[in-house]
Amino acid sequence: MERLLPSDPSTIGGHRLVGRLGTGGMGVVYLARSPRGGAWCALKVIRAEYADDPGFRARFRREADLAARLTGRWTVPVVAADAEAPAPWLATAYVPGPSLAEAVALHGPWPETQLLSLGAALAEALEGVHACGLVHRDVKPANILLAADGPRLIDFGIARAVGVTALTADGTVVGSPGYLSPEQARGRTVGPPSDVFSLACVLAHAATGRPVFGAGGAAGVLYRTVHEEPDLDGVPAALAGIVRPCLAKEPDTRPGVPELRSLLGPFDADGWLPAGLPALVAARASRVLDLPTPEPTAVDGPPDDSLGPDQPGTTTTRRRLLAAGGAVLGVAAAGAGAWWAVEGDRGGRRSSSAPGGSAAPRPRQVIGLLGDRSDTAFTAQERGARLAVDRHNRTADRAFDLVLRTADDGGTAKGSAAAAARLAADPDVAVVIGAGTNATVPAAVPACTSARVTLLVTRADTDRLEGVVLTTALLLRSTRTAGPPAILRHLNRVVKPARTVLVHDLTDAAESAPTVRIVTVHDKLDGEAVVEEVAAGAGFGPMARRTAARPDDAVLFAGLRAERAAACARALREAGHRGTRVATEHVTGARFLAEAAAEGWWIGTGYADAAADPRVAEFTAAHRDRHGSAPAPWAAEAYDAVRFAAHGLTAAGDDGRTALRSALLRRPWQGITRRVAFNAESQFYDPPEDGGAFLYRVTSGVLRFMARADDIGR
Description:
By secondary structure, this protein is α/β, with parallel strands linked by helices. The chain has 22 helices and 23 strands. It has a 7-stranded mixed beta sheet, sandwiched between helices. Strands 1-2-3-4-6-5 form a 6-stranded antiparallel beta sheet, covered by helices on one side. A 6-stranded mixed beta sheet has the order 9-11-10-12-13-14, with helices on both faces. β15, α16 and β16 (528-534) form a beta-alpha-beta unit. Mean pLDDT is 83; it is low at 157-172 and 296-357. ATP binds at residue 44.
C-alpha cells in the first residue's frame, strides 16, 4: 500500500481514505474506512474522463447493482457505490490477505486435498456470480485473495462494464492470457463456461506452480490456448480428471458450475490452507490494525466548488488551468517560440480579410502538430501539414483560416505529455495532431482528454491506444491489433503458401504480440500458421534451420527492431530458406535495409509513397514546387490529417473545439491516402478494404513502392 498523495481527497462518499492500494489505467483503488462502523473497504474510483461516454454510467450503475446482490461467502460484497459522481466509485469489503498468485510464488504448489477445497469454494463463488447475471471474465490467481476463513474472488462486474466500452476492436482480448478461455482469446462473446475454463487454469496453476498453456509472449500463450492441449503434468490425478473437461476448447462441452461443485466436494474450513500459509495470512491481516487515520489532504489553490467538498474526480477548472498555464506560455513566447513555431502571426482566432479586399472578419483555427523536431518523419509531416493549411487558406468560400503551430516533444514520453499540456491549455488550439511515435503519442492523450481537445493520431499504431473510445483521441490508422493488412493480403492473394511461420521475436514481446495474435488466433491467413518464438536477444539459427526444412514456407517476422530483423534475414538465407519473407514498417531502419539478406523482403506500411503512387500526384507536385523534393514518408498522411480536421471544424460550426470529435465521428471523409471513417459503436478507425495500407519491397537497399493494399492480387 502507498501513502495518499497531496492531491487525493480525504473522503469519498463519506468513506475516510487511508492509503492507495493500487493505480491503473481506469483509476485508483484506495483503502478506506466505512462511515458506518469504520469497517475497512477497498474503494475504486473510475477516472472522470471514462464517464464521458454516454453509455458508461448506465452500464456502471447496472453492473454495480448486480454486484451488490452477491451474498455468497466467497465473494467480496459491494458496500456502497455512486454512479452519478463526477468520477464514479464503488466500495467493497477489504480482504487483507495475500493473493493466490503470491502464495504459490512464495510457498509453492498446493497439495491435492487443499486444491479440492479451494476449487469447491471458488466454484461456489462463481455460481453466485452467474446467478446474478454476471460473468467474471478475469478469474486468475491475482484475483483470488486468501483470508483465514477461506478464499475470496474479487474484481468481478466492473471489469466487464469497462471492457464493453473500451475494448471492442477486432483482435482485442479482454482478460489475462494464460487464464482466459479460447472464446475470449478470439474476442467472442463469453458466458459462464468461460469462467469454468479460467477456474480450471487457476487450479492447475496452483497444483504445479506454472500456467497450463506455458509462459513466454502473450501471443504464443493465446495461440496455445486456442490450438493446443493444456499441460497438466504434475496435476494430482483426482484433480486432473476434474479440470481436463473444463479445459475443452468448445464452451458447450465443458461441465457447468453445479456439476463442477459436485465433483470437487465440500469446502474444508479447518484444513483448506497448506502448511505455512496460515501464518502469512495472519501476518497480512495484522498490518491493517496499525494503520493511522491521516490528516485531511488538500489541493493547492482554491477548490472547485462545482463538485462539492471531498468529491472524487475533482479537477482543475478551465479557468484555473489557463491561469496556471499563463506563466508557462509567457516564458515560451518570450523565448522566441522555444516550444512552438507558428505559420503567420500567433493570431489564434483574430480576423482576416476575405478575398477581393473586403473587410469581412474571418476567424482562425489553430492546429497543433506535436512530435520530435529532430525526427525526419516529423519534418515530413510538418511539410505536408503546411501544404494542407495553404490549400485551405486559398479556398474562397472557407469559413475560417487555419494556422499551424508545432510543438516539440523531444522524442520522449515526458516531453510529449508536457508539450501536449501546453497546447491543450491554449484556448486558441482547436485540435492537436499527434505526429510522434508509439513511445510518445500515448503520453499526450491524458492532457488532451482533460482539456477536451481532439487528438488526431497519424503515425502511432501501438495497442496502448486501444482505449481511445474513452478519450478525445481519434486514430487515423489501424493499430497493430488489427494486423498488418498489406502483407496479409499479399500472402493470401498472391503467394498463397501452404504454411506461414510467424517468427515472434520476444525482444519486443508485448509490442509485437498483437500481430501474432491477429494472424493466429483470429485466423487471418488462408493457409496454416505456426509460431516460432525466439527468446529476447537469442540467435535465429535454430528457428531458421527448422523453417528451412520446408523451404517454401512463407515467413512473417513479428518484431520491431531493424537489427533483429536483419539477423533473422541472415539466418534464413544461411539456412537455405527460399520462401516469401514479410515484415512491417517497424523494421525498416538502416540496419535492416543495409543487410544484403533483406533483399526481396516484402514490407507492409501505413504510409503511402507519394512519389510513386499516382493517386497522390497532385500533392507530390505541390510538395516539389514548395520544397524542391518529393514527399518523404508520412507527409501525405499529415496533409490528410489537417484537411480532415478542417472538414470537421467546418461541420462543427461555432462549437469548434468542443464539438470537433463528434463531428469527425459522424462524417466519413475521403483523403488522398485513405478513406477516414469510424465504427459507430467502438469509435475505432473503420478502414475500407485497403485499410490505408501499402506494400513495398526491399530492392537494392531501399523500399520500393509496389501497391496499395486494395490493389494487391487484382
